[in-house]
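dumping this here before i forget
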Amino acid sequence: MRTIKRWTTGIFSRVDWAVSQIENQEALINSALKESRETVAKAKVQMGRVRQDGEKLRQRLQSEEEGIVRWRERAIQVAKSDEQRALECLKRSKKAEQQRDQLLLRVKEHTQVEQQLAKDVGIMEERLTELMEKRNLMRTRQSRAEALNNIQTCSSVGNSDVDDIFDRWEMRVTEKELATECAIGTDPLEESFVSEETETELRDELRQLLNQQ
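structure:
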C-alpha cells in the first residue's frame, strides 16, 4: 500500500507540475498520463495478488473450521470403544481451534488491507479519468482559441485596406494586359482591308433596308 501511495503522489504531483509550465503542455500531460496509466495497471496487478492471498487465507480458515467439526465427531464415535483415541481426537480439534483463531485475525487484517487497497486504486482511476477529461477540455479550448484568433486577425483588416489591396491587384493586372497588347502590335494593311470589308457589309445591309421600303 505504501508503494502505491508513493506512486500516486509522485505521478500526480508531476502532472500538476506539468500543467503549470508554459512550454509544450500537451506533450508533458500525455507523458504524465502514460506513466499514470502504467502505475494504475501495476496497482491493479498488486491488488489482484492481494486478493488471491486473501482467498487462500479464507480457504485455510474454512478447512480448519471443518477440521474442528470432523475431529469432534470422530471423538464421539470412538469414545466408548477407545477413550485414548477419543482424547487424541479432541486434542486435534483443540489444535484446529487455535489455528482457526489465528487465521480469523489474519483474515480480518487482510480484508482491511484489501478493502483499503481497492479504495486507493479506485481513487487513482478517478484521478486519472479526471486528468484525461481536463486534457481533452484543454485541447478543445485551445483549438477554439486558435480559431477565434485567426478569425480576429482576418477581421482586423479594415474594408479600406481590402479595397486598397484589390485596387493594387487590378492595377498590376491592367499593366500586364497593356504590356501584352503592346507586344502583340497591329498590321496597317490588315486594318485597311478589315475597314473596307466592314464598310461594304454595312452598305449592303443599308441597301437591303431601303429595298424593303
